[in-house]
Design a protein that fits this description.
- The chain has 298 residues and is an alpha/beta fold.
- The protein has a single domain, classed as Aldolase class I (TIM Barrel).
- The strands form three sheets. Strands 3-6-7-8-9-10-11-12 form an eight-stranded mixed beta sheet. The chain has a two-stranded antiparallel ribbon with strand order 1-2.
- The radius of gyration is 19 Å and the shape is globular.
- The chain starts with a strand and ends in a 14-residue tail after the last helix.
Length: 298
């Protein structure tokens, strides 16, 4: 995830977060914060109380983009879970984007289980027809015990069902999983359960990030008190290897090229699976260099 500072022309509030792949998108902040905001590892929205922005402000930003951002052909709806906006208002936002920014090819947003659950299959199809083309879905882990520990607020099965609902509506699904989130002792168990979840969900894209401790979060406090021990670098590589080994996608991509990771991987599954595993094995043997600590970032 990357941080975007305030822009004079847009009504951004605080730090705004978007996926790395949306770096060149028009960033339209339609909600402030995250309606869940309980995950133990996340400090992204600690300074924000969740709310949906008013229509006047949203339209003002769309009009600013219409005048000043004609070279950008994608829009990303921020903050944490724009999908939770009531259907009628969300359709209006998408319609305004189509009307005022007709060159935009795709709209994307973050999504969580709660937000998807609030949309029926027909409503998701309506959103897709209004150019909502991709949702970025924070999965983190497929292990229910760990999901409870990190306060995801849903089971793995519900997570799978909501991901399938998105795909069945014709919206591309990009899921995020977290290496290291189970700690050292449950590392491989987490990897296997997550691989099985990904196989059952069959997303378009999988992005693996590595846990980084954010001051002020419960996970950071557990780390400081010695209650949470992150796997070492070889342990994280073994976790990544196990996760990929247990992941079967019909036609998808598995990436670990985020700035937080030690070993960047771009694998098209299923054809590129063995090559990815071989690269990790080579790294474990010391034949492939890892990213130095000073280069890692959120």
């Amino acid at each position: 995830m990357d941080l975007v500072h305030e822009n004079e022309g847009m009504h951004y509030e605080g730090y705004c977060i978007r996926p790395p792949s949306e770096a060149d998108s028009i960033l339209l902040q339609v909600t402030v914060g995250c309606s869940h905001n309980k995950c133990t590892f996340c400090g992204s929205y600690q300074d924000k109380r969740f709310r949906i922005k008013d229509d006047k402000t949203i339209l003002s930003d769309i009009l600013f983009a219409a005048n000043s951002m004609r070279d950008q052909d994608r829009v990303f709806l921020m903050d944490g879970d724009a999908l939770i906006i009531p259907q009628k208002r969300l359709l209006w936002i998408l319609e305004m984007i189509q009307e005022r920014l007709p060159w935009v090819k795709r709209v994307g947003a973050y999504a969580n289980v709660k937000g998807i659950k609030m949309k029926s299959p027909d409503e998701l199809t309506q959103l897709r027809e209004k150019n909502l083309g991709i949702l970025f879905y924070g999965v983190e882990t497929g292990d229910d015990e760990i999901r409870k520990t990190i306060r995801k607020g849903s089971t793995a099965q519900t997570c799978i069902e909501m991901g399938r609902r998105v795909k069945e509506a014709g919206i591309a699904l990009s899921v995020t999983v977290l290496l290291g989130i189970a700690g050292r002792e449950k590392s491989l168990r987490h990897a296997r359960a997550t691989g099985k979840l990904l196989s059952a969900m069959d997303p378009t894209f999988v992005g693996a990030l590595t846990v980084m401790f954010v001051p002020g979060t419960p996970l950071y406090q557990d780390y400081r008190e010695g209650k949470f021990v992150l796997p070492d670098e070889p342990g994280l590589l073994r976790e990544l290897r196990e996760m990929i080994a247990y992941t079967d996608l019909t036609r998808g991509y598995f990436f670990s090229n985020h700035a937080s990771n030690y070993l960047p991987i771009k694998a098209k599954l299923p054809s590129g699976k063995q090559k990815a595993l071989d690269l990790i094995d080579a790294a474990l043997r010391g034949e492939v260099g890892l990213k130095p600590e000073w280069m890692r970032a959120l």
